[in-house]
UniProtKB/TrEMBL annotation:
<dbReference type="InterPro" id="IPR000086">
    <property type="entry name" value="NUDIX_hydrolase_dom"/>
</dbReference>
<feature type="domain" description="Nudix hydrolase">
    <location>
        <begin position="184"/>
        <end position="340"/>
    </location>
</feature>
<comment type="subunit">
    <text>Monomer. Interacts with GLOD4.</text>
</comment>
<feature type="signal peptide">
    <location>
        <begin position="1"/>
        <end position="29"/>
    </location>
</feature>
<dbReference type="GO" id="GO:0047631">
    <property type="term" value="F:ADP-ribose diphosphatase activity"/>
</dbReference>
<comment type="function">
    <text>Hydrolyzes ADP-ribose (ADPR) to AMP and ribose 5'-phosphate.</text>
</comment>
<keyword id="KW-0732">Signal</keyword>
<protein>
    <recommendedName>
        <fullName>ADP-ribose pyrophosphatase, mitochondrial</fullName>
        <ecNumber>3.6.1.13</ecNumber>
    </recommendedName>
</protein>
<dbReference type="InterPro" id="IPR039989">
    <property type="entry name" value="NUDT9"/>
</dbReference>
<dbReference type="Pfam" id="PF00293">
    <property type="entry name" value="NUDIX"/>
</dbReference>
<dbReference type="Pfam" id="PF25969">
    <property type="entry name" value="NUDT9_N"/>
</dbReference>
<comment type="similarity">
    <text>Belongs to the Nudix hydrolase family. NudF subfamily.</text>
</comment>
<dbReference type="InterPro" id="IPR015797">
    <property type="entry name" value="NUDIX_hydrolase-like_dom_sf"/>
</dbReference>
Amino acid sequence: MIHLPLRRHLVGPIRLAFTLLGLPHTVWTSGVRPAISCPSSYPFPTSKTISADNTSYCRRHSTMPSSVGPHVKSRCPQYPGSNIKRLSVPDDKVDWTQKWPEYNPVSYTAPSVLNNPAWADPDIGASPKFNTVDGAVDRTSFEGSYKVENGKPLNPCGRTGLAGRGLLGRWGPNHAADPIVTRWKVDVKGAKIHHSVSQKPVLQFVSIKRKDCGEWAIPGGMVDPGEQVSLTLQREFSEEALNSLSSSPAERAEIHQRITNLFKSSGFMVYKGYVDDPRNTDNSWMETVAVNFHDDLGNSVSELPLEAGDDAGQVQWVDLDSSFPLYANHSHFLEIVAKERKAHW
């Protein structure tokens, strides 16, 4: 996600549903985020079935039920983009309330973060003000108040087997926004196509293939200083899925108008909270706001040619289906969208 002055001209004032009001405005300053390498397998089981007796990826969060146990990808054996091995944390030792006096994970912060880029915090000695808005940085968490031990914030979802910041710039929560843009899959006559098994209509969403790890994902990114989350959602989709930065002025105007019309509609709040991300550590973690914008008539962004932006190797419309693997916990976001739209999953 490369920040260029040009893109500010592409994002005009937009309105989003009242569900987005009051969200944190700022976490990252501008700059180039380091690429990561995404592990393809993890040592702990996952499940796609929603269960009522488990809460979200963080068990104290009640917004999005899930059968996924304590964070899984946040405990991947090898930290992405490095040769650093995490200390193996069993399920019953993830929660900080479980006594584990022998727990002594290695501390790792990537060189790209230690070089003090504009988007990263200085070393912990600067004493950030946690659980509040600290100058230009919002250090509050969607998961509520998190603990601070020995001057460092503790991951609200428990142990990860690695201390430090890893590839993340901020101590504590690192806020992002994920726009989920969908349309109905239709035949040549414009009629909805129904899945042969579920008999439900098939939804498609815009997916990018990440250059850094080759996994398919929702085209999201980090929230910039002073930026409304609604603007982040629109900006990230424009840059990563439509590559508006490389378009001609006339094309940018057309893209901007189509995107603005879609994103000023009432988006469906899919999720707001902790993200089970392989970059997470004991002291730094990802949180996001995921919102679904649906092109119901197929006459908005559906007609625009997709073109991969700076973070994307490929971009295309993909059928929503439980068998399609995605980065981090993006599959669970899409499961919620499918159920909300009464579509196949």
